[in-house]
Amino acid sequence: MEIEQFYNPQQQQLISCRQSQQNDLRRCVQDVSQLDNSVPNLIEWLEANYQNLRQICSLDQTTQSKQETEEQIMIRIIKDQLSRASQQQSMNLNFCQLDVQPALMERLIFSINQLSHLKEIKINLSRQKWGHEQLQVLCNQLIMCRTLRNLELNLGFNSIGDKGHQILTETLSNLHMLESININLERCGLQRRSISILEIFNYLKSINDFQLNLDGNLIEIEDEMKAIIPKFKSENIFTNLQIFKIRFNEYQPKYSNEIQNTQQINGNNSNQQNLYNQQSANANFVAQSQQNQINQSVHPNHSQLDFNQQQNQSSNIQQQQQMQALQQNIALQQQQLQQLCTYAQQMVQRGFPQNHPQYLQIAAQIQQLQASIKQNMHLSKQLQTKATAIKKKSVISRLLEIMLKFTYNLEEFSLACPGQLIDSACWEYFAELIKAKAEKLKKFDFAGLNSNTKSQDMEYFFYQMAKLKNLTDLSLSFHNLQTQSCLHLERFLKPLTKLEHIHIDLSSPDSSSNQRDLFQDLSNFINNTESQNIKSLDLNISNSSFDLDLALPLFQGIAKLRNLASLKLNMQSCKQACDKTIQLLCQALLYQKNIKSLQIDAAYSSFTPISIQYIMQTLVVLKDSLISLQLNLTNRGEGFTNFNNNLINDTVGHLQNLKKCVISSARNPKISLYRQKAQEVNRMIKLCHLMKATNPLQNFRKEVSFEVLQYLSQ
Fold it and tell me: What is the distance of C-alpha 181 from the center of its chain?
């Protein structure tokens, strides 16, 4: 199939291909939505359309026969985007996962200073293998944009480190017109002053939207965090702040919990008494450390509201003293072990047999000493982890303190952090924050409840949440929540009559009784809510004890939400979810005449092929309203490889209004063999998307193929 028309960036328009070619391309792309069920068909599609996609990506304004390199394509697209930016005062480029050559990226960066009048810049530079040197070059150009108001910068999965963070902070502090900041620094190798970027508020008084993603960085805050609040000397620096979102879920570094075993038995008889004395002292030290840990685990008084800074400081001192003593203890033991090794080696050289009583005694001492060192190493790891947790608790505490004391117009608040770092004092501050912002707070998102939290701590928090009369968006994570009693969420959520969007995470690695209580709470709330404003519902109940007893009231409640426009239900790996569960869900969906987006993940549950028929029959009823559809019906059972493929194809064919469709109903182990071919075409598709950001390719629905190919090439 030939492409006769071409894209002319100078005229800012894209001339459509011939109608027959459009239909062929559209048919091919639409077919991709079902190709996950039939891998050979996917390969045929890739091979048949590979050249077509290359041509679409290399359309030239002078001749269609000229084949441009990918770098030339990008250069032309960038030039066109810069030309548009000079007129529209906005620039948006997405280079995520594209292997952009340094020379080309340098050209892009140095082009920014030609657009010093820009008011909005959005650049996605994720996974570009950048260091702080490349970021410094970019920031040198960004600082020229003195009129910049909105900045969205995705630097995720680069290696800019603390130096790059400092460069970015200094750059932002000099862009005094900024009103909106959205920075993604996920897995960027940050370690120390990650939260200190908040100091930019001292220089940027007009910020109303601040979003920061620090997930996956090893943040170790010591004295730096304590210095931030005193630097906020002006009470009105957060006056304009309306949106505040921050994430810093972290991965723990890998500690070595054991020492390498000595290859040969060695020892030193002269240190036998010292060894016994050291073991006795070590046993006392372990017992005292365990008692200290028990004492430190006691929660502060619930009525106190000072974050117990003195207690935290005392705990820090105790932790440091214990760590220092333990390290000295380990060093002494290792020295004694080396002496024993040397002595045992001398005994062997002198001809002592290994069954000699004195040699056996030395060997026993070495084994005991090795066990003691291993125990101390394990305790050292525990103390170090606890000391890190205490530091991070102070980070959360001070962050909430900032929001409580210095914000006046806060409308959106989002925090995602390790739940085990939230103690009683933090819950107290959370409650006070909600209480103080009750009139204006419209969106609240907190993912940090997956912890061993006392129910009385959370009750006061939810008691205050019930006062958020103007709340429209609520997102809470109860993943692996270990409470001692039911929270009675119904009575706290029922007063929130203006809720439009709800996201609840009830996923759990086990079937604990309190998790079932939360299910019942949620079902009661949905069934009894007087509000018909709920437009979207997002429930994650994966890997939980979701059975028919829980499904019936929940789906009955969903059926009552007649204005629901979006439903996202993740019940992956729910072993008790069966065909009857799917049938109840489909019955609830029949009442959703206005639903536009449907996303269901029922993979690896206990349903049979009949459930696919239930779902397909339901989709036909929803064909007039449905725009976006994502289904994951993958199952380990046999009979699903190509089951009902024709039924799925026919059903999707009736959904004329679909703009996005991804269906997975098979798990083919051979799919990895085709990923290499899929990656090359996926690269072409991404270039198409980059061009589409400049000027949409009419009547060419790449969304479908992009989603599927992106999934295959992961």
Answer: 19
- CA gap 685, 67 in Å, rounded: 17
Go through 528-567 and write b for each residue having 16 or more CB atoms within 10 A of its CB, e for each that does not.
ebeeeebbbbbbbbbbbbbbeebbebbbebbbebeebbbb
Q: What are the angstrom distances between the C-alpha of 572 and each of 78, 518, 542, 545?
A: 42, 18, 5, 11
Model pTM greater than 0.70? Answer: no
Domain ranges in the chain?
1-68+669-714, 82-241
In the predicted model, what is the mean pLDDT of the chain? 71
Name the amino acid, one letter, at 367: Q
Beta carbons within 10 angstroms of residue 471's beta carbon: 23
pLDDT, tens digit (0-9, with 9 covering 90-100), for 50-73 = 445 444 444 333 333 344 565 666
- Which two structure tokens, joined as six digits, stand for 245? 């979102």
User: Looking at domain 82-241, which CATH architecture does it have?
Assistant: Alpha-Beta Horseshoe (3.80)
266 vs 477: which has the higher pLDDT = 477
Which residue shows structure tokens 């030609």? 114
CB 205, CB 239: distance < 8 Å: yes
CA distances from 37 to 645, 649, 700 (A): 7, 10, 23
The CA R_g of the chain, rounded to the nearest whole Å, is 31
- Structural contact between residues 4 and 20, judged by C-beta atoms closer than 8 angstroms: no
Please answer whether residues 709 and 678 qualify as being in contact, where contact means their C-beta atoms are separated by less than 8 angstroms. yes
657 vs 702: CA distance, rounded Å? 15
